[in-house]
Amino acid sequence: xxxxxxxxxxxxxxxxxxxxxxxxxxxxxxxxxxxxxxxxxxxxxxxxxxxxxxxxxxxxxxxxxxxxxxxxxxxxxxxxxxxxxxxxxxxxxxxxxxxxxxxxxxxxxxxxxxxxxxxxxxxxxxxxxxxxxxxxxxxxxxxxxxxxxxxxxxxxxxxxxxxxxxxxxxxxxxxxxxxxxxxxxxxxxxxxxxxxxxxxxxxxxxxxxxxxxxxxxxxxxxxxxxxxxxxxxxxxxxxxxxxxxxxxxxxxxxxxxxxxxxxxxxxxxxxxxxxxxx
Length: 278
Fold this sequence. Notes:
Elements: E1 10-14, H1 19-32, E2 35-40, H2 43-53, E3 61-65, H3 71-83, E4 90-93, H4 109-134, E5 141-145, H5 158-177, E6 183-189, H6 206-214, H7 218-230, E7 235-238, H8 240-251, H9 255-267, H10 273-276
Parallel strand pairs: 1-2, 1-4, 2-3, 4-5, 5-6, 6-7
């Protein structure tokens, strides 16, 4: 898509060292000749991604290692961009974590705060700090990679759904506030085959098999997301589970969650045991 609005832009992608973030960054580099600044915490994972990209993209891809849930880190990052005279055109907030499935009272305050900070406040900080620069671009854009959990809350996901629901609401408001001034996109993917399940238990067991069955292939998810970004779609919902949650969340906001809970109970797997066991 040589005539795509993304062509040759400078893009910041958070959570770029693996999963969907790496896939999005690679597509921007290879398909749209973008300059990409990847943000992540793991240097080992980031170096592996750079190695996979190969030397052909070493002039186009750079990275910064910092915790996106820390406001001061974003302020320092912004100052560095200004000092180096780098104009960022597009911000893609992709970093996120999925806490283990659990009943609300069984979460520690550390788990609650960590999920809210990484999934929600990181986007608050990045947008608040980066918007003045983005608006100087001829094609300013913010794309927030949210979750199907923002469309419907399930038992065992109280904190995750809260963090993603907050991001959805904020993005929808910002989309209207900057209509005509900036493209603001909201992406709600369903479960995707990435390492987002790293905090879950029952690795290699029945639970993991079930999650893999309902999860979308990562490469396919990236293709669908990039198509939506290329065409400046305001809202993207991808994955069979995400579409089910979107429909049930609107038509059966109470009984829909109850139905999903019944299915989770019937599955009788360790993955969901912390939700329903007394």
